């Protein structure tokens, strides 16, 4: 019936393809960030090096924290799944705590956001859904940058 829960307008979470769609977007972002950290003069290598070293190991040493990237990825899926109106629950650190000590610069944020844009485009997210997601993302800018 009109107004029943079944007929409620789809949330951004629904339109992004629910958990599966959000996971694809996050996996694309992770892949794009990983690729960017491998180019000469990478902008994001500086901030990501501690995590990459922990996951990959340094100088042939065993990784010290092999699942660290996987945990970040899963937390990011939960964070977006919650922030877009879905049933997921973010259990990670606050954005301020997660990025404290990294001194992320505005340019690093901008390049990170371009990697997200690439993933949203490869996943055929519409312009209006992208705009809605960027409101959520850009609201976190001041907690991520400059600490
Ligand atoms: C609004 C934009 C961003 C969001 C929503 C976001 C989200 C997250 C989340 C959910 C975590 C994991 C927290 C946890 O596991 O408790 C995290 C950690 C991290 N983020 Fe971001 N992030 C953003 C921007 C950036 C930028 C711009 C950079 C650097 C260029 C960055 C680099 C990192 C790194 C290196 C970690 C820590 C990984 C580790 O040491 O385990 N993030 N971020």
Automatic annotation (TrEMBL):
User: What InterPro entries has UniProt attached to this entry?
Assistant: Globin-like_sf, Globin/Proto, Hemoglobin_trunc
Which molecular function term from Gene Ontology is one that the record holds?
A: heme binding
Entry binding sites for heme:
99
Keyword Transmembrane helix (UniProt): no
- Gene3D superfamilies, alphabetically? Globins
Keyword tags: Heme, Iron, Metal-binding, Signal, Transport
What Pfam families is this protein classified in? Answer: Bac_globin
Q: What is this protein called?
A: Hemoglobin
Source species, please? Hymenobacter psychrophilus
The organism's lineage is: Bacteria, Pseudomonadati, Bacteroidota, Cytophagia, Cytophagales
């Amino acid at each position: 019936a009109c107004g029943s829960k079944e007929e409620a307008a789809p949330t951004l979470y629904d339109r992004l393809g629910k958990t599966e769609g959000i996971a694809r977007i996050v996996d694309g972002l992770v892949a794009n960030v990983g690729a960017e950290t491998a180019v000469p003069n990478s902008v994001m290598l500086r901030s990501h090096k501690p995590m990459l070293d922990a996951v990959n190991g340094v100088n042939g040493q065993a990784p010290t924290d092999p699942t660290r990237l996987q945990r970040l990825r899963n937390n990011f899926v939960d964070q977006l799944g919650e922030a877009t109106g879905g049933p997921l629950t973010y259990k990670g650190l606050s954005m301020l705590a997660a990025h404290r000590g990294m001194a992320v610069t505005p340019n690093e944020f901008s390049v990170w956001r371009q990697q997200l844009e690439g993933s949203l485009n490869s996943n055929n997210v519409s312009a209006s859904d992208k705009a809605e997601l960027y409101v959520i993302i850009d609201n976190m800018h001041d907690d991520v940058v400059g600490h």
